[in-house]
Design a protein that fits this description.
By secondary structure, the protein is an alpha+beta fold. The chain folds into two domains: 126 residues, Orthogonal Bundle (Arc Repressor Mutant, subunit A); 99 residues, no CATH class. It contains ten helices and twelve strands. Helix 8 links the parallel strand 10 and strand 11. The protein is globular.
Length: 285
């Protein structure tokens, strides 16, 4: 059900087409005239998006939007080089930058043209990146980089939103009576026992809704649709609430696990450092 090809841009579960990010836009035109001197055009200005820039585009097309830090770790380059790749993509109209709060940097967001160039439908690009969504977008991007750099086969937030296989039935009781709706995880990962859903939980849900979601996951695990669910949190109170509600209604044991965002970021950086070390020791071809 998951594409095992790392760095691939995957379509829905039906007739799927996989396009390697390294091959995206291989024929993209590049300028050859370079002028130097005061007020002139530098080499970086004259050269359009190259293979590494388009590799960045492929990953951004999977996640939709990302801050620079996880993107550069996936690319395996420094901040200055990553910024240059982003600038080339911006100049080509393939991504755009959305400034966040002062000190938080910018989000790099795939555009409709960028999605098309990466092998997706234009609608793959996020419709809006509102301030209320910034924290969740950043957390999902870090979680995606965490999975990517540790060699996992994973499903991004954009993949989940576009594929109705991930649209699960949710039922619970609240002051309105019986509530029937649907729920999707934020991401997913393929591990040996099966598919594990990932919930990036930054805020507390109502106890009733959380009860329904955990009950839903418990049934999906029992039916062997999923092998488990991972909650990624930034607030200890949120994790404590999920554990408390799960004790009475949700999955337990290996079916339910937790990661803090601090651990996710730390392990992402460690995995990137390991990849860089392995690359430096690889024999030259």
């Amino acid at each position: 059900m998951l594409c095992q090809q790392r760095g691939a841009a995957c379509r829905a579960h039906g007739a799927r087409v996989c396009v390697r990010a390294d091959d995206i836009g291989a024929a993209w035109p590049r300028a050859v005239a370079v002028r130097t001197g005061a007020g002139g055009v530098t080499f970086a200005d004259a050269v359009g998006p190259g293979p590494q820039s388009l590799r960045a585009l492929g990953w951004l097309a999977r996640v939709g939007a990302s801050p620079l830090a996880p993107l550069r770790l996936v690319l395996g380059c420094g901040e200055r080089v990553a910024f240059d790749h982003v600038r080339r993509l911006v100049d080509a109209g393939l991504v755009t930058r959305v400034a966040m709060r002062r000190g938080d940097g910018s989000l790099i967001v795939i555009t409709r043209q960028g999605a098309l160039q990466a092998g997706y439908e234009p609608g793959r690009a996020p419709r809006s990146v509102a301030p209320a969504t910034w924290a969740h977008i950043c957390a999902c991007a870090w979680t995606s980089a965490w999975l990517e750099l540790r060699g996992r086969a994973w499903v991004s937030e954009r993949d989940v939103l576009e594929d109705d296989w991930w649209r699960f039935t949710l039922t619970y009781q609240d002051h309105r009576g019986t509530v029937r709706s649907t729920h999707r995880p934020d991401l997913a990962v393929q591990i040996k026992p099966g598919i594990v859903a990932i919930e990036v939980e930054l805020r507390r849900k109502t106890v009733r809704r959380l009860w329904g979601i955990l009950r839903m996951y418990d049934q999906l695990i029992e039916d062997e649709v999923l092998a488990g669910v991972i909650y990624v949190t930034t607030d200890p109170d949120v994790e404590q609430l999920v554990r408390h509600v799960a004790a009475s209604s949700g999955p337990d044991g290996p079916g339910l696990s937790f990661r803090t965002m601090q651990v996710v970021i730390q392990q992402t950086r460690e995995a990137a450092a390991s990849c860089a070390t392995a690359s430096s020791h690889a024999p030259a071809s």
